[in-house]
Amino acid sequence: MSAATQALRILLVGSGRMGSAMLRGWLGQSVTYPDAITVVEPDEHRRTQVVAEHGVPVSAVVPEEWSGDAVVFAVKPQILDQVLPAYRTYCAAGCAVSIAAGKDLDALAKGVGSSVPIVRAMPNLPASVGRGVSVAVPNQQVDAKIRDCANRLLGAVGSVHWIEDEALMDAVTALSGSGPAYIFLLTEAMAKAGGQAGLPLALARSLARETVAGAAALMAATDDDPAQLRADVTSPGGTTEAALRVLMENDLWAASVARAVTAAADRSRELAAVQES
Ligand SMILES: NC(=O)c1ccc[n+]([C@@H]2O[C@H](COP(=O)([O-])OP(=O)(O)OC[C@H]3O[C@@H](n4cnc5c(N)ncnc54)[C@H](OP(=O)(O)O)[C@@H]3O)[C@@H](O)[C@H]2O)c1
Question: Whose CA is nearest to atom 35 of ligand 1?
């Protein structure tokens, strides 16, 4: 590892679904190595899993001493306010990265101190297979070095986009945070429709699943716009065109997706307000 890409020393707070996905990404991408990570996790079963899978030191409680580059908070938003103050000193020496949904930079600064560089990020579930997308917003204390550190932490489980306007986080949550569920729903609907069209259900489910996964892989492998990819598979007078005519009728499907995203963004705002009160 060159000096510019030295292993990061990380304190991971919470190794549930998302924390352990990040841990796997960090070790797999050589962002760090087992001796440079400390994990705090109260759940005994998860502690055993982390040690068995990664050989990383895991503590049930806040370590008495620690120094390093970043404290990454991957606990549920509901308990974050109680958890943050115990890590003030450690965050002050490096930076704080939180992936807790709905916890804004002000709330994070209240917990760890207003002079601490803080990155608030929203990853999504495909991070668990290294194909997530994260959106990050920095507070004013974040400099280029901290940004680079956060890029390495979040980039180990997928791509990273930065925004400067934190208010956009509700829309981000609604699009990429909740988005995987929209695709799962589409897959369910395709499988059901395949069954209704006469296919054995098991076959319809496999075809729907593999079609969605294959189309996503194709989209990921090209810079072509999805609209272009759609046009490429739509022959005039053909079967795809017949299906798309139904799906695109009066823009109903697109309007339904737009309403869904708006509902999710509204709910994200509501949840953030509840957490602040
Ligand atoms: N999952 C997603 O798709 C996703 C997407 C974007 C953002 N996020 C955010 O990621 C965060 C974690 O979500 P998750 O799905 O990974 O939740 P999770 O599976 O419940 O993991 C949270 C872990 O933190 C542990 N924990 C509780 N109190 C702790 C403490 N004081 N110190 C250290 N660890 C503690 C929990 O243990 P116990 O079970 O014993 O409480 C649990 O193992 C959340 O804030 C969520 O908003 C998740």
Answer: 14
